[in-house]
Amino acid sequence: MIVPGTRSSPPNGVLPDDADEARPCECRRRRIERARNVGIKGSLPKRFRGVSFDRPPVSDMARQPGLSATVGAVRRYCETIDEQLAVFDDLSESDQVVLLNETLEVLDQLPEVHERLLEAYLKRDLAELSRLVKEYLQVADSAVEERFKAAVLDARHERMTERMLPFLEKGGRFVAVGALHLMGADGILARLKAAGYDVRRVY
C-alpha cells in the first residue's frame, strides 16, 4: 500500500507529483534496503549478528602471512547465495502465491516460531526440532507442500552433502549448515551415515 507523504518528508519514499499522483522518491531504494537490513537483524539472536567470513577476526587472519592459505583452505561453500535464491525457480508462480499467502497469514506468529526452534536447537533436541519443522511447514495444499519440501529441503540436502564429502575426506574439517538440514531420513546426518561416517553429537 502506498501512503503519499509530504514533499519535505516522505514517510515511505513516495512523493506526490504536480498531478497529485504518487511517484517514487530518490530515497526509496535506500529506505527499502534499510528496512530489509533491519528485518534480517531482528530475526537473528544478537550474539550471532555480524558473524561472517568477510569480517574480523576471520578477514584479519586471511591477510596475515602464514594464515591466509589456512583460511582459504577452509573457506568453502556447500551452497551459494544464488543457489539458495534459485530454489524458488523450481516452483511455479501459482505455488509461490500459495506459499506467500500462507506465510502472510502466520506472519505475526513468526517471532514465536523462531524462539521455539532456537530453544529446541539449544537443547540439542533434534526430535523436537523435526516435529516443529513439520508443524510449521504444513501447507493446506499437500501437493504444494511436497513440491516445496522437495525444492527447499530435499534437493539442497543432496547438493550440500555431495559437496562436503570430498572436503570431509581430508579430515580436520568443520562444516556449518542450517539446523533444518540436519534431521530426517533424507537429511545431511542420515546421508553422512549412509556414506560410512560415524556421526556423533559432541555438543
In terms of DSSP E residues, the strand content is under 5%
State the low-pLDDT regions, or none.
1-12
SS-derived structural category:
mainly alpha
Supply the number of structural domains. Answer: 3
Tell the overall outline: globular
Main beta sheet strand tally, sense and closure: 2 strands, antiparallel
The largest sheet has its strands arranged as 1-2
Series of secondary-structure elements, N-terminal to C-terminal: EEHHHHHHHHH
Gap from first CA to last CA: 47 Å
Q: How many strand segments?
A: 2
What is the number of helical segments per DSSP (H or I, 4+ residues)? 9
Radius of gyration from the alpha-carbon trace, in angstroms:
22 Å
Indicate the mean pLDDT.
76
Question: How much helicity do the residues have?
Answer: 40-55%
